[in-house]
Amino acid sequence: MPLRSIATFFFMLLFVGAAHAATILVWGDSLSAGYGLEPGRAWPTLLQTRLQEKGFRHTVVNASVSGETSAGGRSRLPAALERHKPDIVILELGANDGLRGLRPQLMAENLEAMIAASRDAGAQILLVGMQMPPNYGPAYTRRFAQTFDDVAKAQQVPLVPFLLEGFAGQPERFQADGIHPTADAQPLVLDTVWRGLEPLLKRN
Fold first, then answer.
1. What is the pLDDT of residues 171-199, one digit of tens each?
2. Residue 74 in domain
3. Is 84 a catalytic residue?
4. 66, 150, 180, 191: which is the annotated catalytic residue?
5. What is the CATH number of the domain that holds 110?
6. Is 48 domain-assigned?
7. Is 30 annotated in the active site?
8. How far apart are CA 103 and CA 139, in angstroms?
9. By the number of CB atoms within 10 A of the CB, which of 15, 125, 173, 201 ranks highest?
10. Catalytic residue chosen out of the listed positions 30, 32, 64, 118
11. Known catalytic residue: 180?
């Protein structure tokens, strides 16, 4: 094969590989948007760094919005799926539903709709769960947390049961509002998400 043809061949391989680099869409609220943190300190940014370090060519798009509810996320998602065409959607919504005392059933319907839309767009889904503080009452907190498990089982998607696993009871890991993790806690959040995400990465 002539040298020019060989060079063209390898250029085409590089072009095709770049064109098919997988995209991870982080679809969450302030816990993923980096509320109260300096730029670059939120766990989705740390995720991009870890992917590169481990040899994954995925691109992370963090489209999380502070204050977002599952209903708001549901209404915005179709346009984001069309724009970013993600291969994986990390669905981290519901915390604001709980803080507002909304019915878990409504949250479940919104989560299921977002899972269906993501699936129709060709994406895999990682559902990320949340828990409410005990002052919301045992019945509500139990039902709220169970909703994520029920949705994951019904829709057959992997679940990270609790985004703040391992440090939720450590006040020093949270900002002054007691809700949002500090910069020092972001690697812990990433480790929790990574355990659910890594098996999906190997399929892309």
1. 999 999 999 999 999 999 999 999 999 99
2. yes
3. no
4. 180
5. 3.40.50.1110
6. yes
7. yes
8. 12
9. 125
10. 30
11. yes
